[in-house]
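Q: Hi! First time doing this. I have a protein sequence and I read that you can turn it into a structure. Is that right? Here it is:
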Amino acid sequence: MRNNVLEYLEDTVVRVPEKLAFSNGTEGMTFQEVYDQARAIGSGLRALGADHESVVVFMEKHPRTVTAFFGVVYAGCFYVPVDAEMPRFRVELILKQLGARFILCDEKTRALAEELRGEATLLSYTETAASPVDQAALAAVREAALDTDPIYIVFTSGSTGVPKGVAACHRSVLDYIEQLCDVLGFGPDTVFGNQTPLYFDACLKELYPTLKFGATTYLIPKSLFMFPVKLVEYLNTHRINTICWVVSALTMISGFKVLEKHVPEYLHTVAFGSEMFPIRQLKLWREALPQARFVNLYGPTEATGMSCWFEVDREFADDEVLPVGRPFRNTGVLLLDEHDRPAAPGEMGEICLKGTCLTLGYYGDFERTAQAFVQNPLNDKYPELIYRTGDLGRYNERGELVFLTRKDNQIKHMGHRIELGEVEVVACMDSAVRAACCLYDGEKKRLILCYEGEIEPAALSASLRGKLPPYMMPNATHRLEALPRTPNGKMDRRALLEQVRAGK
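A: Yes, that's right. Below is the predicted 3D structure, encoded as structure tokens:
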């Protein structure tokens, strides 16, 4: 039984040492190069005394960055990915929380890392990857390894904007990768197109299956996601057949009608998550790729990535919401009402998760960990943790789990309880709307709808009046060139509300 993710790499490098493992389309690394440099980095860190501690990887998005992650793990430590594209204040908060002794950087991030490092020792990737391999030291690390050892910390902003460092261990990552690969059918011929930044846990979907099967991952340059035609051309040039993207990255392509003339001809697996996929946009994708599998994934960072899946196996009306389906094997889902009892059929409840998927909690923050990772209220016989996601859902008539909204996106307006996501779904039913986000301004007690599309605000409002009850009608409707998004591609509701309040 595996207890360390590096066993994937060690098995694969024997089989396909010269196969391309990771590339950005310009520069790439084979499995042998990844293996050799990761072991050198691990040896270099051990020589400096690194042991069971956080090591910051502050580098641009590149195959070397991925290799640095594995090198940190070889040292018996856990990596914390940071990127120069993150806001400076956020990087400062993360480094302050960590108190890390070592920061790995590259030539492009060295200057900023030097400014922010504090007391930490700055290490050059190039120099550290040239360290002599200490076989004895690496063997000693592996001999003492436990599957509950941390592997990484990724920081999420949380509802307050204060970064929370979620610490995952080998056990939860191994379990996640095994279940994900089984559901999506990855294999040695899989060619991934990575969309997410490497400082989010979402990149696990590509990085570790690549090691497991000897597959190949292309780290798609962020700039291409501003040019949908060039993005599709990139997919075709590199024969990318599998993508696991946030919904907004997909709707950018379909919303600008790119699929009418430019089809990603090699794609056979399209997985997506993090946001609701407007059915009208999904139909465009399915029409363009009739033989491809489309899989809706759901899950929080605190449960090591995705926890539930639904393969689109039927047609949906434009006003329907895709289910998130059922949990991965070895993952438990509880749907609890406001009294911590199982929600009745069709009744809304909070989605709670349990099982090996749960991470270790929030790094250095036992108080917030204890608030989110709690004893299962349905079990009074033995200790059993569940994670309260803060997401609300229900089971449909087919027994499929449907995500409805976030607890903090369910508001009370004009005496009625409203799910902001429902307004967004109705807005996206209009063919001239590419994306929509509904906000609630608690200060002024009003609903605000912002959208991307060709339709005029007055025309969209008129259309909505025939579909929404009066209490759900937006008090203001704004058309924007582009809705603000987080680096991961999700809708940035906080930034959008600030933008609207500022009148921009």
